[in-house]
Design a protein that fits this description.
- This protein is mainly alpha-helical.
- It has five helices and two strands; from the N terminus they run βαααααβ.
- It has one domain: lambda repressor-like DNA-binding domains (434 Repressor (Amino-terminal Domain)), CATH 1.10.260.
- The longest helix is centred in the middle third of the chain and has 11 residues.
- The chain is globular.
- It starts with a strand and ends in a 9-residue tail after the last strand.
Length: 74
């Protein structure tokens, strides 16, 4: 399963908010921020806190990327 949080990073730029600002406002631990930067799966509760902080929906901060059978991204 491939997840991308690129939408979230773009939204932060639009809102003139840094990653550190988001981490503090949504009460996210540094290890989870590392997972987000690496496009790794994180707990749904954390994603909910991010959505509440940014006043958005899950689709606004992440997307599922289909992978081919060979293991590469489409």
């Amino acid at each position: 399963m491939a997840i991308s949080y690129n939408r979230m990073w773009k939204l932060l730029v639009d809102k003139k908010m840094s990653k550190a600002d988001l981490r503090k406002a949504a009460d996210i631990v540094p290890n989870t921020m590392t997972k987000l930067r690496r496009d790794e799966a994180v707990n749904l509760n954390i994603l909910g806190r991010i959505c509440q902080t940014l006043d958005c929906d899950f689709g606004d901060i992440m997307e599922y990327i289909h992978e081919t059978e060979e293991g590469g991204k489409k």
